[in-house]
């Protein structure tokens, strides 16, 4: 590979990273807090491409790049043209729940309903035994998944860093559950704490339930994942 091909590849990869960071495409791969690093990496690669071109002009010559080296461009375009979908119910029900280690539970803000993430609701239901949820109405959003027995769950995938380490947070649905729930459809649930719990058959973690008062379909959010910071 000569310097011209190197510069083109660096520029394309940098451009893809900048495109992903600006448009939100990066959320398919890493958590939202890493956006500055994605943009910074894109800038560095574009600058490196410009420096490579400058160096090649200062020192002309070198071998012609074989045509096969241009195939290295194809994976770069694939990142834009064939972005992977967010992880859904298939992955979620084959992995153990992320609710396996106690986390700090802070007081809820005033007012009903209070909007919570799925992991926040699950932590309060499992480790706080629903004390902070008593008498409160909560709203949580996630996608629908079913276990082998047909029990419906509201799920969000929890990221530590990137989609490769994602773990599901599962909350069982009880109460006024809609009769028809397509897997991977997104729901906004408004309801209250339920003391019902089951064990996740994959890793033995605790899966809490929410008592559904109202459920409405919603479009998938721009960031389909949750994170702990």
UniProtKB/TrEMBL annotation:
One Pfam family this sequence matches:
DUF1980_C
Q: Which residues form a coiled coil?
A: none
Q: Which UniProt keywords apply?
A: Membrane, Transmembrane, Transmembrane helix
Is Transmembrane helix given among the entry's keywords?
yes
Decide whether keyword ATP-binding is in the record.
no
Q: Which residues cross the membrane?
A: 7-27, 33-56, 68-87
Q: Where is the DUF1980 domain?
A: 125-225
Name of the protein this chain belongs to: Membrane protein
**Gene, per the UniProt record:** ycgQ
